[in-house]
Structure formats: C-alpha cells, structure tokens
Amino acid sequence: MRLRTRLAALASLVPEGSVVADIGTDHAFLPIFLVQEGLARKVIAVENRLSTLNRARQSLNLFNHNYKIELRLGDGLKPLRREDGVEIVVIAGLGGRAICRMLLASREKWDWFQMLILQPMQETPLLRRWLVAHGMRLVSERLVREGAKIYEIMAVGRGRQAVADPLLFELGPCLVRERDPLLAALIKQKIGRCRAIAAALQSSGRRESKFKQAYFREKEARLTEVLALVGDSGDHR
C-alpha cells in the first residue's frame, strides 16, 4: 500500500516494532501500512462512529490484516486499556483544541505511552502551548505539503520543556532549530493570514478591533524577521 504524503509522514515517526493506537482511523490505511511495513507489531484502530468503523473493517478484510489490527468503537483514548501495551498513540486530522480536550479526558492514561504523534488541522500554536504547560515536550516536528496545504506534524514525549520565545509556539521549536525545508513557506502563509486579518479589522471603528489589528501587525513583523533569518531557500513546490 502507498500512503498519501500526510499519512506517510505520520508513519515515518513510528519506531519500528511498536504497539500503536490510531485514534480516528477512518479507512484504517495507516494501521494497514504500519503492519505491512513491519513498523507496528500490533495496532488498535479507534473510531467513534459505527459506520466509519465498518468502513475500516472493509479495508482490513481486503488486505487480510485482521489478526494484527484490532478495531474498537469509542471516543478518543477511552477504549484503550493498560494491558494493550500501547507505546505510540497517533491522533491526526482533528483541530488542536479538540486534541487537547481528547487528551485531557484521558489524563490518567498518559503514563502508559512512550510517545504521541499528533497532526492538528488548525490551532497548532495552542496545542503546542498546551502540551508544554502539561508536562510534555516536543521531541520532533516536521512539515509536509499535500496539495496547497502544509501540515504540521509533531512527536511528543513526557518531560518538561522550556520555550523561551512565545513565537516558537507559532512556528515550532524543532522546525526552527532544524530549519525544516518547508519552514519558509509556512512562515509566508502565516504572514499572509496576519495581513488579511489586520486589513479586515482596519475598517472597523471598534476600539477592540484596533488592539487586535496592532497585535496582528506586530505578529507579522516578528514573522518577517524570522523569515529573513531562516532564508528563502526552502522547498516551495
């Protein structure tokens, strides 16, 4: 099986031979790939809707991987049990705030896992800030482009992490440190959003709009400074 770019990037962060839980598995393509490639010796694939779980079951029947992939119905991490021995938890395709809520709802299970692999669809800075505030650290981060969208993917482990500059929650401390090839393109997108929001706020006469506009102008200036430091030699395909 050949995965799309986003799922392939998630799979690349899974240590070989792991026991994995894929939360929100959809068609179960990621679990199937992990088993086929020997990256996972077992996968628990979780969905919160029976119709979607049945769709995943059809995929497992097609590829004959029912013996190494177990399907479970439930919300978030709640269907997981300690005796499952899950080492890696993958949560992809949800908003950052939804991922925070999902993790918080199963706070008592965090110590069971070695690593979380997360791919938020939006509110990534909020997710990074929340993780660090709750005693987790960003082990690795990477950017992948699929179509016009740049996805931010992070591997998270237990342990305290100090983030000196709040702007790093926006950009990703590992992405900045390692000069990810797509970092310049991501910064340009963020600058564009800041400009668009500031321009929309400019027409409003409300006092709070002026404060918000000033915030986004300042954020644009900081991002522009970082872009100059990072350079513009990244991958912009």
The total strand number stands at 7
Main β-sheet: number of strands, strand sense, barrel status?
A: 7 strands, mixed
Mean pLDDT: 92
CATH topology of the largest domain: Rossmann fold
Just name the CATH architecture of the largest domain: 3-Layer(aba) Sandwich
Alpha-beta content class: alpha/beta
CATH class of the largest domain: Alpha Beta
Return the string of H and E elements: HEHEHEEHEHEEHHHH
Residue share in β-strands: 15-25%
C-alpha-based Rg, rounded? 19 Å
Low-confidence stretches: 233-237
- The outline comes out as elongated
Strand order of the largest sheet: 3-2-1-4-5-7-6
Enumerate how many helices there are, as a single number.
9
State the distance separating the first and last CA atoms. 24 Å
What report would you give on this structure?
With 237 residues, the chain is an alpha/beta fold. 44% of the residues lie in helices and 22% in strands. It contains nine helices and seven strands. Helix 8 runs antiparallel to helix 9. The C terminus is likely disordered.
List the helices and strands and how they pair.
Layout (H helix, E strand, L loop, with lengths): L4 H8 L5 E6 L5 H8 L3 E8 L2 H14 L5 E5 L14 E7 L1 H10 L9 E6 L3 H10 L2 E11 L2 E10 L8 H5 L1 H5 L5 H20 L4 H24 L7
Parallel strand pairs: 1-2, 1-4, 2-3, 4-5
Antiparallel strand pairs: 5-7, 6-7
